[in-house]
Amino acid sequence: MKPTVHYTLMVLLSVLFSRITLSEATSGCAFQPENKTRSLYAACRMHPNTQLAPGMPKVYGQVLFKQSDPEEGLAVRFRLHGLPPSATQLRAIHIHQYGDLSEGCASTGGHYNPLGVDHPNHPGDFGNFIAQKGKIRRCVYSKATLHGELSVLGRAVVIHEKQDDMGKGHDAGSLLHGNAGGRLACCVIGITSPTLWDKYHN
Q1: Which pTM was predicted?
Q2: Quick check: 109 and 96 in contact, CB under 8 A?
Q3: What does R_g of the chain's alpha carbons equal in angstroms?
Q4: Measured distance CA(164)–CA(185) in Å, rounded
């Protein structure tokens, strides 16, 4: 192969690789090598808050979790629906302390905060999401874990009425919960097989 042809081919391969890498990064959850012996999967079936005020949107769906290894990031996939189709309101989603739905989403407690730090540095502070045609379809990485003493298994995921101010609200509530407002829907995180994750990831 002539040097000029070889160089041109290397440039084209480099460009192609960079595009693939960018696509994976911007899509949310890039491919992770599978570790069959240490991978954990979990799911959380979202239902509207039983204490929901009249006229508030009723959110349903699933939150799926995959962690390939205790040292790897936790991939979290949101598949939610029931939000107003034309709404542009950002909605906060967080992991809360208790998997207790006896009083609707109110009994899930505050944010899961095992290290006693200010919001938005809790491991389950997922940030804000905006619905497209009433649906949230996103995949993100989280500081939370399914492994060990700090596992979020058995805790709750809550989607809120309002936008999370990300700790910049200059008041006590901002550093506790981001002033995200009422709790629209919630669910309890439980261990599961890879089936659901693989279904939507593929």
Answers
A1: 0.83
A2: yes
A3: 19
A4: 16
Residue spans per domain, the chain: 1-28, 37-201
Model confidence at 37, in pLDDT bands (50, 70, 90)?
Answer: low
**How many residues are given for the chain?**
202
CATH number of 37-201: 2.60.40.200
Q: How would you label 68-88 residue by residue, b for 16+ Cβ within 10 Å and e otherwise? A: beeebbbbbbbbbbbbeeeee
CA atoms within 13 A on the CB side of 62: 11
Q: Mean pLDDT, to the nearest integer, of 39-48?
A: 97
Using the 8-state DSSP alphabet, how is residue 201 labeled? H
User: pLDDT for 90-122, tens place per residue?
Assistant: 999 999 999 999 999 999 999 999 999 999 999
